[in-house]
Structures are given as C-alpha cells and as structure tokens.
Design a protein that fits this description.
CATH topology: Hypothetical protein yfbM fold
Oligomer: single chain
CATH architecture: 3-Layer(aba) Sandwich
Shape: globular
Largest sheet: 4 strands, antiparallel
Low-confidence stretches: none
Mean pLDDT: 91
Order of helices and strands: EHHEHEHHHE
Number of strands: 4
Helix content: 25-40%
Length: 142
C-alpha cells in the first residue's frame, strides 16, 4: 500500500537536511496529513516504481522523491518528498504523455500493466491539482 499526500512546499527546508528515517517521521507528524489531499496508490505502485526508476526525466522521482532519508531499517514505511518544482515537471510529463506510452513503459518490466495502469489517470489528475496549488507531495509507501 502507499499514499501520496499534498503538503506545503515550505517543508522542503526542514526535510532536505534530515538523513535518518526516524528524524523524518518526527517532523512529518506536524504536517497535518489527516487533513491533506491524498492519493491512495493501493498495490499498484511497485510496478510503476520499477518501470520508472531508470527514466532520465523527473518522473523517476515519482516514488522516491526529490528528497528522502537513508534506507529504512525494519518494516517502517518508505518516505520521500517531492518539491513543487519537481511536482511541476512530473505533472507536465503526465499532461504530455498518453496512457498508451505509460502502458508500454510498464510492460518493459516483464509484467502485464493491465491491473496497474488505472493509476495513470489518478496520478495525472493528482499531480495537476498539486501543481496548480504550487504544493509539494509527501510519499509514504509500505
């Protein structure tokens, strides 16, 4: 499971200097995530992450973030932060790239994108909205 939360872009100054996941968890507790706009990724994010990790554009940060702590120990959720500039770049990619192109990228993983391509329209809409409000995104993946 995973979630993307819309958050204030001013949080980047707090997060970019933190290296440990525990420090991130301490800080994000004050972000008001309960009231934030959220996109639930369900179980579809791993295929997307695998497919996009080697892309040369900003889309490669979709599930890692522009900032993230060192690797998590134990079963803690992975956490990352996408600043507003990167949100804008990712949104532009979604707006200019057709669903079929993303299906082809997902298919390169060797798995069928049939059950995970639904996330395309949800991501496209979510990033567009976040960009329009000049906000950032907090990533939590389990």
């Amino acid at each position: 499971m995973g979630n993307l939360f819309e958050v204030n872009d001013t949080y980047s100054s707090q997060l970019e200097r933190l290296k440990e996941p525990s420090d991130w968890y301490d800080v994000i507790g004050d972000f008001g995530l309960g009231e934030a706009e959220v996109l639930e990724l369900e179980d579809s994010w791993p295929l997307w992450q695998e497919a996009l990790k080697n892309e040369v554009s900003a889309i490669k940060y979709l599930f890692t973030g522009s900032y993230h702590p060192s690797q998590n120990a134990g079963g803690d959720p992975a956490v990352g932060y996408i600043d507003s500039a990167t949100v804008s770049a990712i949104s532009d990619i979604f707006q200019s790239t057709e669903r079929g192109e993303f299906e082809a990228i997902l298919a390169k993983t060797g798995f069928s994108p049939e059950h995970d391509i639904w996330l395309y329209s949800e991501l496209k809409s979510f990033f567009y909205g976040v960009k329009s409000r000049n906000s950032a995104i907090l990533i939590l993946l389990t």
